[in-house]
Amino acid sequence: MARHVIAPVREIEPGSRRLVHVKGRDIAVFNIGGTFYAVSNTCPHEGASLCKGVLVGLAEADLPGEIRLTRKGEMLRCPWHGWEFDIKTGKSWCDPRRVRVKSYDVGVAGGGELVEGPYEVETFEISVEDNYVVLNL
Predict the structure, then answer these.
(1) Which residues neighbour 28 within 8 Å (Cβ) at sequence distance 6 or greater?
(2) What DSSP designation does 37 have?
(3) Which domains, ranges and CATH numbers included, belong to the chain?
(4) What is the distance between the alpha carbons of residues 26 and 30, in angstroms, rounded to a whole number?
(5) Does the pTM exceed 0.85?
């Protein structure tokens, strides 16, 4: 799996979001209370930009008239028609078995991890002979 650096953490503050384009895909990245989530930017209903959607809570009730708001800021509401998706999983709230947006694994990595990485470099022995640089294969 390829890793793609999106931005320094300080550039996506808690409560904010960023639209990124990675390998031909538009992806909406959200910072909710210091935890990052990423979903496809396209609503499966009619293609609205989910990055422009509102983060809301989940209204739940055990009995009629006893509504409580849970999971504050964890439901992403499409800006066009109000379809709601779980920001953590991409599942639709109204039909989670059939409707969803693609969710992506996103996290935070230290700069040192990115520099060191699992890179392999092929090296060659060289020498200087009479003002010529010679590469020995």
Answers:
(1) 17, 18, 19, 38, 39, 40, 41, 49, 50, 51
(2) E
(3) 9-136 (2.102.10.10)
(4) 13
(5) no
